């Protein structure tokens, strides 16, 4: 079986070149062609010798693939469907492009399904079918038609990034290294429900922004909708985050989906202020997007504004996130890896 080179680091490519007897500088050339020039064909890598190109065609591929479907929302959001193969089985993942006046953001997936079990999330309800490789994660970033105008990438699609951390870390390395895309890590945001030991690694090993899915500051109520609260209490996550300095360019934010009559009154706002006391952060309030089999409803606009104003007035920066792509099931919590080309 041929080796997939896309997603390999400079060090990994140097090891491959040494094994094949290629000059050491060939690895840097491969990085330049795959990541900077975005070339997928070894034969088009014209500064490699014909002998090296022939050998690469024998042993390897640049593992890129196009989306098989695209849906466009009335608000301009686009949802792409990518095929992925895991353990010999074909699945589909979804990737969302969100254009705005001052930025172009891509929301990428890292797993097929999710095993965190959040009861309000469509992705979690489909079960867990496997984690993506670095190549499969990067392919989303490089293969959407709008790839070269992206200003930001958020790891907030299907799956829990901390449950596939090694692939996430390798992806971040390709995006931020000078031999890769050379992006600032502050153009990247990684989300998590708060798997504390792995989150500590992300905080120590990268400089990207972090977004924590919080949704309720009362532990028992959070546990009712997010089973991982039992293993990784949100209080422990906050304690970990409090050890880091958030006064620079790096940011920490908390995602808080608003459920009518469940987590949207002033008692919940007060508990949230108490939980986040002393932590320099932002809270993003998210409208709940209804889906089959989920008994919750979204809070109304008036309630969300009152909740935001309470947090702001008590020293917690808070915004109400604009909902994008709901009509094509591309909004928060609605990704399910389904489309006209998918059957599962």
Layout of strands and helices, then pairs:
Elements: E1 3-4, H1 10-20, H2 25-36, H3 50-59, E2 60-61, E3 69-72, E4 78-86, E5 89-99, E6 104-107, E7 111-113, H4 122-125, E8 128-131, H5 134-143, E9 152-155, H6 165-176, E10 188-192, H7 196-205, E11 209-213, H8 219-225, H9 234-241, E12 252-258, H10 266-275, E13 282-287, H11 301-313, E14 317-320
Parallel strand pairs: 1-2, 6-9, 9-10, 10-11, 11-12, 12-13, 13-14
Antiparallel strand pairs: 3-4, 4-5, 5-6, 7-8
Number of helices: 11
CATH superfamily of the largest domain: Aldolase class I
Low-confidence stretches: 339-344
User: What do we call the CATH topology of the largest domain?
Assistant: TIM Barrel
Gross morphology: elongated
Strand order of the largest sheet: 3-4-5-6-9-10-11-12-13-14
Helix content: 25-40%
**Largest beta-sheet details:** 10 strands, mixed
Rounded mean pLDDT score: 93
Radius of gyration (CA) equals 21 Å
How many domains in all? 2
Strand content: 15-25%
One letter per element, helices H and strands E, the order comes to EHHHEEEEEEHEHEHEHEHHEHEHE
Report the structural category: alpha/beta
What is the CATH domain class of the largest domain? Alpha Beta
**What is the number of beta strands?**
14
Distance separating the two termini: 27 Å
What is the CATH architecture assignment of the largest domain? Answer: Alpha-Beta Barrel
């Amino acid at each position: 079986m041929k080796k997939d080179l896309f997603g390999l680091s400079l060090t990994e490519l140097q090891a491959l070149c040494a094994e094949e007897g290629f000059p050491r500088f060939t690895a840097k050339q491969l990085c330049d062609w795959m990541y900077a020039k975005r070339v997928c064909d070894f034969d088009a890598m014209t500064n490699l010798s014909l002998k090296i190109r022939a050998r690469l065609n024998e042993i390897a591929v640049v593992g890129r693939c196009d989306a098989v479907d695209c849906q466009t929302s009335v608000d301009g959001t686009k949802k792409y469907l990518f095929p992925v193969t895991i353990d010999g089985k074909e699945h589909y993942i979804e990737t969302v492009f969100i254009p705005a006046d001052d930025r172009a953001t891509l929301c990428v997936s890292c797993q097929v399904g999710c095993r965190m079990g959040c009861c309000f999330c469509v992705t979690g309800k489909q079960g867990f079918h496997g984690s993506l490789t670095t190549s499969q994660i990067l392919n989303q970033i490089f293969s959407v038609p709008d790839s070269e105008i992206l200003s930001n990438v958020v790891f907030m699609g299907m799956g829990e990034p901390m449950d596939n951390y090694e692939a996430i870390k390798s992806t971040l390395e390709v995006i931020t290294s000078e031999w890769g895309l050379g992006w600032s890590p502050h153009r990247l945001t990684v989300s998590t429900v708060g798997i504390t030991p792995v989150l500590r690694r992300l905080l120590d090993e990268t400089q990207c922004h972090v977004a924590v899915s919080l949704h309720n500051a009362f532990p028992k109520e959070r546990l009712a909708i997010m089973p991982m609260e039992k293993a990784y209490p949100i209080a422990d996550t906050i304690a970990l985050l409090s050890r880091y300095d958030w006064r620079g360019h790096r940011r920490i934010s908390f995602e808080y989906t608003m459920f009518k009559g469940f987590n949207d009154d002033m008692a919940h706002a007060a508990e949230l202020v108490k939980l986040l006391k002393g932590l320099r952060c932002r809270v993003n309030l998210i409208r709940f997007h209804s889906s089959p089999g989920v008994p919750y409803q979204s809070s109304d606009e008036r309630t969300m504004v009152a909740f935001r104003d309470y947090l702001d007035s008590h020293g917690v920066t808070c915004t109400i996130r604009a909902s994008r792509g709901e009509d094509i099931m591309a909004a928060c919590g609605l990704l399910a890896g389904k489309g006209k080309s998918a059957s599962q």
